[in-house]
Amino acid sequence: MGVPSFRDGLTRHGVRRTLCRVSLFEQLPDRVSLYEVSPRDGLQNERLTVPLREKLRLVDALVAAGLRRIEITSFVSPKWIPQLADADDLCKHVFRPRGVALSALCPNVHGLERAKAAHLEEIAVFLSASETHNRKNVNKTVDNTLSAFADTISGAHDAGIRVRGYVSTVWGCPYEGDVDPRKTLTIAQRLLAMGCYQVSLGDTIGAGTPLQTKRILTLLLAEIPTEKLALHMHDTRGTALANILVGLEMGIRDLDASIAGLGGCPYAPGAAGNVATEDLVYMLHGMGIETGVDLERLVEAGRAAEVIVGRPLPGKVHNSGLRSLRA
Ligand code: HMG
Ligand code: MG
Fold first, then answer.
1. Which ligand is nearest to the CA of 262?
2. Whole-model pTM over 0.90
């Protein structure tokens, strides 16, 4: 998968036109909605399984910081993701304050039955834009995965459960390299047509660069309203915030993040966690964009996450601490 160089950027016709049209920071929102994924995307990737009480402590710290949409676990096969085998128990014990929407990954109707028993109000179905990653992740072709979602999504709606969708490997696949954004468009449209309220676009391996993000979103936003799309940017190569800024400029208002940068995908070797929530919030608040989150408490949650997993985590702001945003 080639990273376009600056020279390429200036010589490729499409890229030159894009560069001329970019006018930074003219269309930033007043507010964005954050979707926290650390208890799921973060803890699924830990070498050791975090004890249930520590998972509950993490969710409490996230809620205390003001996060209102949190993906707390996965109802997947415990053989595939043993780190989240306690999903049913977690849901029994988790504190659910009013106004906080808790969600869980759900690959099939078996997972949906577990979500119903857990009284979750939201689930997330997931698949990849590339065949090889999809097969390694859920053991099916992309087409078969989509077909099977019909029952999961309609069953969720019958039970009053909202459904979010993920498309992984949008910015590149660890097995196939470049991925045609038209595949992502087709899959996202099918997920929305089946009733997902929103589709989160995953840079699963954290390979994306800003012009690539602009190209992908230009294609998708020509067909899909901005409020139907979210960004889920892993930060393996340090480009997540830059890509998110492009998304904000293009109208995206829903951003996934993971406290302290916890996480990765077990079927994307070497991938780092999602953009650190506290780093994202630091940038957003510094630009006058509201999140409803208390940054100081988020920093505390980042430090708590390090204690919970017993190792330093890559997020920058919980390590550096805050400075006055007015300085
Ligand atoms: P399979 O082996 O093909 O499934 O796995 P199966 O239907 O043949 O069933 C096999 C066994 O699994 C049976 O049990 C089923 O009961 C059980 P057995 O008879 O052998 O004892 N089973 C289940 N158990 C509990 N809950 C369920 C469930 N379904 C079946 N829901 C399956 C297919 C999808 C289940 C498997 O591949 C799986 O669980 N994969 C999980 C993959 C995963 O969680 N990956 C990480 C999350 S995705 C991600 O991180 C990307 C994302 O963050 C976005 C991004 O970054 O791009 C979302
Ligand atoms: Mg992910």
1. 2
2. yes
